[in-house]
Design a protein that fits this description.
The protein is an alpha/beta fold and 712 residues long. The protein folds into two domains: 138-289 and 302-515, Rossmann fold (3-Layer(aba) Sandwich); 523-709, P-loop containing nucleotide triphosphate hydrolases (Rossmann fold, 3-Layer(aba) Sandwich). Helices cover 40% and strands 12% of the residues. It is built from 29 helices and 18 strands. Helix 25 (603-615) links the parallel strand 14 (594-597) and strand 15. The chain is elongated and about 90 Å long.
Length: 712
């Protein structure tokens, strides 16, 4: 079952089962499950009611008030309701991890739902290259980046060097990407320079892509770009320059509103080009082996991995997979007359598409929210794609696929956990390109799924899966696949957890390229209300101790200042769910007058909490970042803000601060904003206040007072 659903199967869990779940497991479950505990359909039907509930005082809606009171009678303790919901989430997760979900079509490619009837048509072993798309001329092929990358034979001492020695790095300034950091363990490679102009014919694109790419990408090209280059935007040109060199890439400035789609097109071109060229080589060698004389050496035809999948694309929602497949189809169709054959296209559209009428048109959300959550936002899916010459096969079994498109949760439920009977990760053994797009969203879903994937990629398979070992490259047989794998990582922000994956799980022998630009102004400049910002520094000896130090600093030095009734209407913004639970338990133990909203709080409890806070019946509101990420409601009645920790997304800082203007209370002068930070929050701090202020604040041990007039 999908973790983000709130279906009847979850509700049917018996109360006795829930009672057996320990408090620790309840807490653990919240990080194992998707934060969006309600289904999107349920949310759509009730969001208007929720919005009007928060405005109940001004509108005098007696009907809603009576309905709300009825809800309170059913469940007087929202905390108990939330705890039970969390326990049910955990039980549902256990079922999802261990149960046979093959009968649920929402889960994507699973056994009887895979396409088996086209197996022979898309088999690499039994097909041969067609003349018109045959081998490129030998000279061009020898200079092909794919061939150069995969044909390099590493030595044992080089592998040991990469395993033991630190990377050396250098930096360069590129016109569009900005500050670019190159790092590598092996001897210093030739520094990559940004191409000012790109001739498509010099990129070693597979035959159809040279003609289709300029047409497909035309939508992103402005009149300014066209005189220089007729096929790439300046950003795409520099990104593709890195991609085509087969270096790892980390680009942390992806923006769903501005450059998200042009980045998607660029990596789709690279992935498809890689697959078409790799398959063409296999088919060409099939023909050579078929026609070879007896006794001829076949070692020259090692052109495959231990399993067929070459590209793994990790994306957050089904809508993203839909767009990727549409780009692939567009890139493969030379013109309107030469349509490619796509197997199971209708079914794919039904399962990955969305009905525009499902979402009420009058719900107002920020533009970036609408861009991220467009279309089908189910986060539990996986699908295999096979491409052979002029045909594409959707829902191919994994071991017959060239490309696998999946969400972290979708791939996690296939990999399974140690001790489970039904688990499989052999199909990840020979992945040559790993693309992780919108990595920041996985911080809001479940980052553990990403880490779990990184631990299981490029391992030796447990079964041979019918491979012809005489055709397998030596690098795969030596278990050196991870040193040849290219990882492309795209995110909307810099984050220590994302940086860690790039630094610790990417071993590409060619090296890594990371874009590291520092924010000059910060999101505080977008705060439009007159508000004093007090940044209070806490001291901690290590990254691990900062969690406890922050809690002690808050309850001993910050919270006592807010006990006075004058400091009512205080919203406490908490990015971490663990911190939220800890604070909620402390507030309850101290019998403080508070209410709380998190990503697992049910709709009725959210309505109550918002109403109590607006009317001043509750002095404090504990509010989680993941709830804000998934709902983006405007919370009314805020007079005092406390950021328990700096937000993951810097623009959330200005969004939360600007909620104060929704309070029509005429007490602007009493508004306050307090932010807790430590020296380990440098990246987040720079994104909020800018790099110059950050340097000053980290050097100073004193609290910093900033006053934003709304004009900054």
């Amino acid at each position: 079952q999908s973790e983000d659903s709130d279906k009847s199967s979850k509700e049917s869990d018996s109360e006795t089962e829930v009672e057996h779940v320990s408090g620790y497991h309840k807490l653990l479950a919240t990080l194992k499950t998707s934060p969006e505990s309600e289904s999107e359909e349920d949310e759509s039907e009730s969001e208007e009611a929720e919005e009007s509930e928060a405005e109940m005082d001004s509108e005098g809606s007696q009907e809603i008030r009576e309905a709300e009171e009825g809800e309170e009678d059913k469940n007087d303790d929202p905390e108990e309701e939330e705890a039970k919901d969390t326990a049910e989430q955990m039980l549902s997760q256990e079922q999802a991890d261990g149960a046979d979900t093959s009968c649920d079509p929402r889960n994507g490619v699973i056994e009887e739902f895979t396409d088996v009837k086209h197996e022979s048509e898309f088999s690499l072993e039994t097909n041969f290259v067609e003349e018109e798309s045959g081998d490129c001329n030998a000279d061009r092929r020898d200079s092909d980046p794919l061939k150069q990358h995969m044909d390099k034979e590493l030595e044992e001492k080089e592998i040991q060097k990469m395993s033991m020695l630190p990377k050396t790095s250098s930096q360069s300034q590129w016109p569009r990407l900005g500050q670019v950091i190159f790092s590598s363990t092996l001897e210093k490679h030739k520094t990559l320079k940004a191409d000012k102009e790109v001739d498509v014919k010099q990129l070693h694109l597979h035959k159809p892509l040279e003609s289709t790419w300029p047409k497909v990408n035309k939508q992103f090209l402005s009149a300014v770009d066209k005189p220089i280059d007729s096929s790439f935007t300046p950003l795409q040109r520099e990104l593709f320059c890195v991609m085509n060199s087969y270096r790892d890439l980390f680009y942390p400035e992806r923006n769903a509103l501005t450059n998200g789609e042009e980045i998607r097109h660029a990596y789709c071109l690279h992935a498809l080009n890689h697959v078409l060229k790799a398959n063409a080589q296999v088919l060409s060698n099939n023909a050579k082996l078929r026609d070879r004389k007896p006794g001829t050496n076949t070692d020259d035809h090692r052109d495959q991995g231990l399993t067929r999948p070459k590209v793994l694309m990790i994306v957050p929602f089904r809508e993203c997979a839909l767009r990727i497949v549409h780009i692939f189809i567009s890139l493969l169709e030379v013109n309107d007359k030469k349509k490619i054959d796509v197997s199971n296209k209708k079914r794919f559209k039904g399962e990955f598409g969305s009905d525009p009428e499902e979402k009420p048109p009058n719900l107002k959300r920020p533009e970036d929210y609408e861009a991220v959550f467009a279309g089908n936002i189910d986060d539990h899916f996986r699908i295999g794609v096979a491409i052979l010459q002029k045909s594409m096969r959707l829902y191919a079994p994994f071991y017959s696929s060239d490309i696998i498109i999946a969400s972290p949760l979708g791939i996690r439920t296939v990999i399974g956990a140690e001790g489970e009977k039904k688990r499989d990760f052999d199909f990840l053994s020979s992945i040559e390109i790993l693309i992780i797009d919108q990595a920041d969203i996985y911080l809001m879903q479940n980052w553990e799924h990403v880490l779990h994937l990184m631990k299981h990629i490029n391992l030796l398979p447990l079964d041979s899966h019918g491979v012809d070992f005489s055709r397998v490259r030596m690098l795969n047989l030596n278990n050196w696949s991870k040193y040849y794998r290219q990882t492309l990582l795209f995110s909307a922000l810099q984050d220590p957890q994302i940086n860690s994956v790039f630094n610790k799980h990417c071993f590409n022998y060619v090296g890594q390229v990371a874009v590291r630009n520092v924010p000059l102004t910060g999101s505080i400049s977008h705060v439009v209300v007159q508000l004093p910002h007090v940044f209070r520094r806490l001291e901690a000896d290590s990254v691990t101790s900062v969690i406890d130090e922050r809690f002690q600093f808050f309850i001993n030095k910050v919270l006592p200042e807010y006990h006075d009734a004058v400091m009512s209407h205080t919203l406490i913004y908490v990015p971490s769910y663990f911190d939220y639970v800890r604070l909620r338990n402390y507030f309850k133990k101290e019998d403080l007058n508070f209410t709380h909203i998190c990503e697992y709080t049910k709709k009725a409890a959210v309505c109550r909490a918002r109403r109590f806070f607006l009317k001043g019946e509750k002095q404090f509101l504990l509010f989680t970042e993941r709830f804000h990420f998934y709902k983006r409601y405007t919370i009314k009645g805020i007079r005092n803000l406390i950021f328990y920790e700096l937000p993951t997304y810097s623009h959330f800082y200005s969004e939360i601060c600007n909620m104060l203007k929704a309070t029509d209370s005429g007490v602007d002068a009493t508004w306050t904003c307090t932010v807790l930070y430590s020296k380990y929050d440098a990246q987040k701090l720079a994104a909020v206040v800018g790099i110059d202020r950050t340097a000053q604040m980290l050097q100073s041990k004193k609290n910093v007072h900033l006053f934003v007039t709304g004009e900054n």
